[in-house]
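quick one, 212 residues, struct below
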Amino acid sequence: MRLTTAELVERATELVAEAFLASETRVLGITGPPGAGKSTLAAALVDGLGHGTAVVVGMDGFHLSNAVLEARGSRDRKGAIDTFDDAGYAALIDRLADQVPGGPPVYAPEFRREIEEPIAAGIAVADVPLVITEGNYLLSPGGAWPAARSRMAEVWYVDLPDRERLRRLVARHRSFGRSLPDAEGWAGGTDQRNADRIAATRAEADLLVEWV
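---
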């Protein structure tokens, strides 16, 4: 479904209204393959909803550290589904969904691309009706991912033609210091294998979004 930012903000506003009526927090998931625009859409929703209405908590904060990945021999597959702490992510989503107005803040980790590492307690979440969580594996059927999904009011799948998605991925990798051959190799290799896995879950989404 081709949708504008304004239309998506309107749909998110309905979740905010539900949260206010129930005096609780709603969690909106945004998923899709690497480079589809998940984090950009999440930020646009926060801007469109207005100050103090929503906050973004990314799944990427649950990347295993580089040290752990190296010890496990999976550093060269960083971003694959088994390189995340899915149980930790599910536990956080549970806490966020259980938040009530005026309750204590919940602290979430934040992934810093400039150092390619998660930072503990990088995001404070308190007194917002909507938490937007974005990441690759929100609809995955194994591990603790379904437990996290069960606490989300909706999950949107962001789609993008592969040609444009790969162009964006290469540009992103280059912006963080990779050479062109390395960026193209990673986007067409590790990222693409992950994208194929994620694409198999798209039918489970509440909304398929071609963001205009």
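The radius of gyration is 17 Å.
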